[in-house]
Amino acid sequence: MRRFSLWLRGRPVVADSLLAVSLLIFDVFGVGDEADKLVYLTFSVLLPLPLVLRRVYPRAMAAAMLVLSLVNTLVGYLVAPGSTDHVALIGVGVMLYTLVAYVGRRDALIYVGFIVLDLVLTIVLLHEPRGGDLALLVVIYALCWTLAEFNGARHAYDAEVAARLAVADYDKERRAHDAVAAERTRIARELHDVVAHAVSVIIVQADGAKYALRHDPDTAERALAAIAGTGRDALRELRRTVTLLRTEHAPELLPQHGSAGIAALAQMMREAGVAVDLELTGELDDITTEVSLGVHRIVQESLTNTLRHAGTSPKAVVRVHRRDDEVFVEVTDSGGVPAQVNPGTAMAGTGMGLVGMRERVAVLGGILSAGRLDDGRWQVRATLPLRGDTD
């Protein structure tokens, strides 16, 4: 029964058709007492019809119900006296309920005015209803209005709850989408920092080895050794990065960062051909994991860009200073243009390295600036706030 009720709730025309048929059946049962059975049966069929579409076209069906009630009164007065007493006239009260619950009080008040006119006309022409019957009609209409007010309030509450649930679902989906997008950005940034750095070093060393192979075998051998070392370091760093991305906390990965990690990075870039001056001040080994990794990646990306774009004899000065509540990073290189050792293998940047640095610094709540100085050098500066908690 409950399932059938829920099924009807989603099909208002079907439910209202059942109501109309029920009123028709009650009217048919009373046909035996009527003098003009044809007229009585005709209105028994016509009066319930507007109820079928009362929730689809409430104003039009309410007007149709009033017109049928008035015609029924006139026919009873002119043609078939005594044939106007129809159970289906309960539909007038049902229409009042419909207007209050689904349209509004203003339309319902206008409808009440027409009901009063219909009642006055019926009393004048047919001298009914009288006394108790009239009082009963007034009570029925009052109950219809009250019930409609109650159900209207419940419908408004249900609509508000549904709207809030829809907003909550949308917010949940949006947060999930944002979380996925942020995770994809984080993975892309980490992989770019690891892979772009290693590949840039390998390409530069490979170009140098190729041109030194015939004339300077020792230089070529050192370049090839640097390529092998860079590849192994890149593979190890890639594994660490993947592990870090898969877990919330990976304290075993911390030794690669800090002052030792920056020094190792500077030494690797020296071996790749960049003259790096390194200046580290303050305690850099006990800062948070996120800030330590951020400093490492900023220096790494800046030196990689120096190697790729700062000319044939690149130079860079790296300064990392820890202050009371922040870490200051500055990387200044010699500027210039990309080395054209072999035009066929010249490296062109995608611009994603600088974007990745800005994203990383923004996540950490810091400030980053990058640009060319007046003397032609390129400088990257970042300030990363310390969270106060240490690893």
What does this structure look like?
The chain has helices at residues 2-9, 12-29, 37-46, 49-52, 58-78, 90-103, 105-126, 131-212, 217-246, 258-272, 289-309, 352-363; strands spanning 275-281, 315-322, 326-333, 367-372, 378-385. It is α+β, with helices and mostly antiparallel strands and 391 residues long. The protein has two domains: 2-128, no CATH class; 179-385, 2-Layer Sandwich (Heat Shock Protein 90). InterPro entries: DUF7134, HATPase_C_sf, HATPase_dom, Sensor_HK_TwoCompSys, Sig_transdc_His_kin_sub3_dim/P. It comes from Nocardia halotolerans. Residues 290-388 form the Histidine kinase/HSP90-like ATPase domain.
Layout of strands and helices, then pairs:
Elements lengths: L1 H8 L2 H18 L7 H10 L2 H4 L5 H21 L11 H14 L1 H22 L4 H82 L4 H30 L11 H15 L2 E7 L7 H21 L5 E8 L3 E8 L18 H12 L3 E6 L5 E8 L6
Helix pairs in contact: 5-6, 5-7, 6-7, 6-8, 8-9, 8-11, 8-12, 10-11, 11-12
Order of helices and strands: HHHHHHHHHHEHEEHEE
| The CATH top-level class label of the largest domain | Alpha Beta
Average per-residue pLDDT, rounded, comes to 78
Helix content bin = 55-70%
Pfam family, one: DUF7134
Protein name: histidine kinase
InterPro entries: DUF7134, HATPase_C_sf, HATPase_dom, Sensor_HK_TwoCompSys, Sig_transdc_His_kin_sub3_dim/P
Keywords: ATP-binding, Kinase, Membrane, Nucleotide-binding, Phosphoprotein, Transferase, Transmembrane, Transmembrane helix, Two-component regulatory system
